[in-house]
Inverse folding.
């Protein structure tokens, strides 16, 4: 019996310790799109009694006396996630998807600040995946045009995009000027400030931040703003294979084959898309094939490696501009020369980028991206036939140091971006059948742009943050003309310094007010410094200067009435100087710094959450919303030859446009989105003698999302655009001497589709 007492005594010693043992679940919660840590997220165990909250670095630890099988993660502004807990004790890396219900609570990164939208001292609009799904996702302009201050136009079926922010960028019809674009942190804009979006598969975009006003202090060359695009992410905790098909009016057929994997170690999105459009107009057929790969590899709790790769093949015909009689009488027709000469585009475009994110410590981190791309284009475009080969490479690095001194939070961002293009461009006389004839141009252009930036912010008093920054920007071109006896001309512009100062104060975590001063610039392009038609050594205009913008803003945003009423209001005034104006004298086309203009306006957005999932059983969302833009844009000083246009309205700028809509969604998965747009009259000539007609557009979409069992998902949808069959122009050609101002837009059209997914 004594022998038994010893092991029994030992056992009794360990029983209390076993009873008190705690099982721990730990991890980090981040924004699925930006990878920024999320503070204040509530972690709830499956017993509904055990809970924790993430700290300022997004970290949490949950302890329980019993095993925890699943946890629920909730944060205002994000979609809640129910996550299985790994039983091996590994730390979790949970990624929450932003919700479009209370956007003021969502973090934005466009101005290099880990803050909620409410706390930002800048004009930023955020679009989430649900915003893109409320329209036909094939056409980005349907969604981007809902942002106040933004107008996106597409000249052909799905190419030659043009984006205006606050009216800047009107004179560029075939590409984007004055606005800089990024995708997954990779610059899409060339070293000369020009962007084309033909190679981007818009159906893969799941998030966008639109910075209105110059953001040169962080992003370098731009006059009007920056658009930051993000590819879609795999839902956390799922591996799936999806097949989608969309069909619609005018021969629209789009297919997507998508593989997604979302977990603690990897988030991967791989998509192949084929797109065909017969076109609303004659000679406007379009075929595109896309391959997009976007993957994040979470090496450990300090490092993330991201890869972006895409390939695009394009074969598209163009229909050209027509006059007002054809716009209203025969909008389906094409300009005859575009048919006879088979005007259009054939292109292959490839892009590869690798990004490394590393946290050196809790308050010091770096994100570095290296990228390269290659473009090959053949394009018979009036008045010539052109062949272009372009190689692009560069890098961007951003360091962040965010220490806390006593009660004062601070943040220092510094880094640099380098962008280089090498372009071989050959131009030929074009025959009546659209074939290349005698060579008329053979140029090799190297463009280099470097910017170094520094931005500091500090909470100078409680809830008040001051931000100050600037960037140093240098642009150089080397132009080798192979026809003009191998003439080489270097154009090196004087370096430009672009500052930014901003102040924001937050009242009771519900309302904020901000003020901002910033400056922007864009250099002349290599083609703008060329004097067309001159065959002498002086054919390069080395006197051109960058266009500049000085901007002042005052704004407020907030969430009122129990966070149901969300608003965003900005007043601005911008002064653009040294504007580049095209002029033709004695048959010679040249650009001169002859213009200046003032842009004074207001941008507003308002939404009201009538019902949400917390209010009424069965209703996920019922929300009306409206966005409004007013822009009084006038030439301050603009003299061209003997013509004085000073005081006239700026060509191409609509004084007012308005968007409104209703979003309705049921818990069962059914949803309806209604949209209305109004666009005011637009001046088509610098002398303000010709205007477009104001017009309205109505769109609608309905769908149903469901899961069958644990493995099958289904999404059915149908929609219509331009329900009133309004006649208007998709893009405009300004100051057209022959009156061909208009590229007619598609009339009433319908689409529908289905996506079936298998979840492994």
């Amino acid at each position: 019996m004594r022998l038994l007492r010893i092991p029994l005594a030992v056992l009794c010693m360990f029983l209390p310790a076993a009873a008190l043992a705690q099982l721990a679940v730990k991890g980090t919660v981040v924004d699925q799109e930006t990878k920024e840590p999320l503070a204040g997220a509530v972690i709830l165990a499956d017993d509904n009694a055990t809970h924790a909250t993430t700290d300022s670095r997004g970290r949490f630890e949950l302890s329980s006396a019993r095993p925890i099988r699943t946890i629920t993660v909730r944060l205002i502004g994000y979609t809640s996630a129910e996550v299985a807990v790994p039983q091996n004790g590994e730390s979790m890396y949970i990624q929450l998807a932003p919700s479009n219900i209370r956007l003021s609570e969502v973090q934005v990164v466009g101005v290099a600040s880990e803050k909620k939208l409410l706390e930002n001292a800048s004009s930023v609009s955020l679009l989430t995946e649900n915003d893109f799904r409320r329209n036909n996702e094939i056409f980005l302009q349907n969604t981007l045009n809902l942002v106040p201050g933004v107008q996106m136009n597409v000249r052909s079926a799905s190419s030659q995009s043009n984006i205006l922010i606050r009216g800047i960028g009107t004179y560029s019809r075939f590409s984007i000027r004055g606005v800089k674009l990024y995708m997954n942190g990779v610059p899409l804009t060339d070293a000369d400030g020009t962007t084309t979006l033909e190679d981007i598969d818009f159906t893969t975009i799941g998030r966008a931040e639109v910075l209105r006003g110059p953001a040169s202090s962080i992003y370098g060359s731009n006059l009007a703003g920056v658009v930051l695009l993000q590819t879609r992410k795999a839902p956390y905790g799922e591996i799936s294979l999806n097949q989608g098909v969309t069909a619609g009016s005018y021969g629209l057929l789009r297919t997507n084959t998508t593989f997604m994997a979302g977990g603690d170690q990897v988030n991967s999105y791989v998509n192949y898309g084929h797109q065909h459009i017969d076109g609303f107009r004659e000679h406007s057929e379009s075929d595109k094939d896309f391959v997009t790969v976007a993957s994040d590899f979470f090496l450990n709790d300090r490092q993330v490696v991201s890869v972006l790769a895409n390939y695009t093949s394009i074969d598209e015909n163009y229909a050209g501009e027509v006059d007002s009689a054809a716009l209203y009488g025969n909008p389906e027709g094409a300009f005859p020369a575009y048919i006879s000469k088979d005007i259009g585009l054939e292109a292959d475009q490839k892009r590869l980028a690798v990004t490394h994110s590393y946290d050196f410590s809790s308050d010091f981190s770096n994100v570095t991206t290296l990228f390269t791309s290659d473009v090959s284009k053949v394009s018979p475009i009036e008045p010539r036939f052109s062949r272009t080969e372009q190689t692009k490479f560069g890098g961007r690095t951003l360091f962040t140091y965010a220490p806390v001194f006593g009660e004062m939070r601070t943040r220092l961002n510094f880094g640099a971006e380098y962008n280089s293009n090498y372009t071989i461009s050959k131009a030929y006389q074009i025959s009546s059948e659209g074939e290349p004839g005698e060579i008329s141009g053979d140029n090799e252009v190297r463009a280099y742009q470097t910017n170094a930036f520094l931005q500091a912010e500090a909470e100078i008093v409680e809830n008040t943050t001051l931000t100050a920054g600037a960037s140093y920007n240098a642009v150089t071109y080397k132009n080798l003309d192979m026809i003009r006896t191998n003439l080489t001309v270097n154009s090196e512009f004087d370096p430009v310094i672009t500052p930014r100062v901003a102040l924001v104060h937050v009242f009771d975590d519900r309302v904020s007010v901000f003020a901002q001063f910033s400056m922007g610039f864009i250099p002349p392009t290599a083609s703008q410094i060329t004097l067309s038609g001159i065959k002498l050594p002086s054919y390069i205009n080395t006197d051109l200067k960058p266009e500049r913008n000085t901007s002042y803003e005052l704004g407020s945003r907030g969430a009122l009435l129990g966070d149901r009423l969300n608003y965003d209001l900005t007043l601005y005034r911008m002064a653009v100087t040294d504007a580049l104006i095209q002029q033709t004298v004695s048959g010679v086309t040249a650009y001169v710094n002859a213009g200046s203009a003032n842009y004074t306006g207001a941008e507003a957005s308002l939404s009201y959450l009538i019902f949400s999932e917390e209010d009424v059983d069965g209703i996920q969302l019922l929300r009306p919303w409206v966005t409004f833009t007013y822009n009084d844009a006038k030439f301050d000083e603009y003299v061209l030859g003997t013509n004085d246009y000073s005081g006239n309205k700026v060509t191409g700028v609509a004084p007012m446009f308005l968007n409104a809509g209703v979003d309705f969604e049921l818990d069962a998965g059914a949803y309806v989105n209604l949209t209305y747009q109004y666009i005011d009259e637009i001046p088509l000539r610098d002398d303000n003698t010709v205007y477009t007609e104001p017009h309205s557009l109505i769109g609608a979409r309905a769908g149903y999302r469901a899961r069958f069992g644990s493995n099958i998902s289904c999404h059915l949808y149908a929609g219509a655009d331009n329900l009133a069959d309004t006649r208007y122009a998709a893009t405009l050609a300004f100051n057209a001497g022959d009156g061909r101002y208009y590229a007619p837009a598609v009339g009433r059209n319908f689409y529908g589709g289905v996506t079936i997914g298998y979840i492994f």
User: Anything to note?
Assistant: The chain has two domains: 19-96, 225-253+270-759. The chain is about 5% helix and 60% strand. The two ends are 58 Å apart (CA to CA). Residues 315 and 346 are 5 Å apart (CA to CA).
